[in-house]
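In this supplementary section we document a worked example of the pipeline. Step one takes a protein sequence of length 298 as its only input; no multiple sequence alignment statistics are reported here. Step two produces a three-dimensional model, which step three serialises into structure tokens for compact storage. The input and output of this example are shown verbatim.
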Amino acid sequence: MAPEPERLSSLSNPLATVEQLSNSSSNLDGVSPSLESSIRFAGLQLTQAAGILLRMPQEVIAQAMVLFTRFYTGSEGGSFRINGAKDVSAASLYIAAKLSADPRTTRSVCNVYAYMMSEPTRKAFPNSPTHDPKSYYLSEGNYHVARALLLQTETIVLRTLAFDTKVVVPHHLALTYLQTLGVFPAVPSPKSRTIASRTLGYLNLALFSSQLLYTTHQPIALAVAAIYLAAREVGVKLPSNEWWEVFDVEREDLGFLVVALRSCEAWVRAERERWRGRSCPLTVDEVALELENEISDA
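The serialised model returned by step three reads:
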């Protein structure tokens, strides 16, 4: 990752370089860019769902999702052929929770992922599965195996990221900017609540972007772009001048992010349609099997 800018370093993240974005370990190991994007998306969905089941704050879940994305970025990052998305997802959540004020135990994380990876849950996802405790029961022996794998993967993730686990998410920034722009007062109206909700929705959607927006743009720019789009949708009038420059965001960056955010929803729908009726590979063995099927179908 490229170093953070000295200016406003407390509100900035390390960003991926052009070389890291153009090459990945997964591609070098024979995973096509299309399949890589699908596995990343499925892994991020898994992280989001597991974080909700663990009752973690959305800010912490978002931080875990950014750590997950960073891990697989670049030729020196992780590979889906070697580091399963399920394992890295669990480790990312565990790390993010550990760094927060409300950590989670290894048993809680292992139990949730045993449930999420059970066959009934995966077949029904994102809907609620048929309740079958036997399908996700984690025996004491299996728990210790899962715990050892979780801690081992945690070490791999930290080493790959050079122990740089700092993640600034733009959610709180966006709400502060809405107040600064005078559209989210102390006693909000229904319309101001709607624009705040839409803004946060865009920021959450950007976490799943195939363009890796959280690794290419700083939180300030993401917050401004989400506000711009939400205001246009809701019909809230913002200052007529180039107000985004007050937050040190260039017009070109804003334009790129607006287009990227608008395209996210369509891309998510396309991914869900692509894997309708089957599960996207989330383990090393499943990825190997998917690659074999791609070769046989070619």
